[in-house]
């Protein structure tokens, strides 16, 4: 088993200066949520923990690495065995929505980390991250005259509102119910304010 103090400084360094919502604090929320979900599942908690902590260190939107080079380097430095490394990489590989869409991970560890990552994309945290990501990548907030324009609001319909029904574990689905409802309430308020109705 690894110790957090061995890996957290590396993560802070890797994500320093990120303003897209994929920062160190996102990683820590996913990590804590994944561990909470893991308590209800028959899984390898060590694999879950490592995969959650490393799930974004090679994200193609942020880094130009190949074959999970950052994750592999960190795992090697931690002295993680080749067998566990492969399990961790397999779990990480199944997390991304943009890459995997509705594809269900093959392992329970992958399912848990995917759920934890998707939970951080919805609710109040998801709303904040959506606007941070959009601004970071030069997308406007909303364009009522063109629903094909990549905007923060369009992202709700392209991804965020789809996530509740694509979760793998019962615990994640329970958490998602409230978060999904909050996003829908937010959109109702957003449109009302945009149109000067409130």
Ends: how far apart?
A: 54 Å
Label the overall shape. Answer: globular
Class based on secondary structure composition and strand pairing: mainly alpha
Individual helix count: 10
* Overall mean pLDDT: 94
Low-confidence blocks of residues: none
Strand content: under 5%
Q: Can you summarize the main beta sheet?
A: none
Count all strands and give the number: 0
Radius of gyration: 17 Å
What features would you highlight for this structure?
mainly alpha, 198 residues, 0% strand
Structure notes:
The structure is a single chain. With 198 residues, this protein is mainly alpha-helical. Helices cover 60% and strands 0% of the residues. It is built from 10 helices and no strands. The chain has helices at 4-14, 24-38, 45-54, 69-77, 82-93, 97-100, 108-119, 123-136, 152-158, 170-194. The longest helix has 25 residues, at 170-194.
Outline of the structure:
The protein is mainly α and 198 residues long. The protein has helices at 4-14, 24-38, 45-54, 69-77, 82-93, 97-100, 108-119, 123-136, 152-158, 170-194. The mean pLDDT is 94.
Furnish the topology, listing elements before pairings.
Layout: H1 4-14, H2 24-38, H3 45-54, H4 69-77, H5 82-93, H6 97-100, H7 108-119, H8 123-136, H9 152-158, H10 170-194
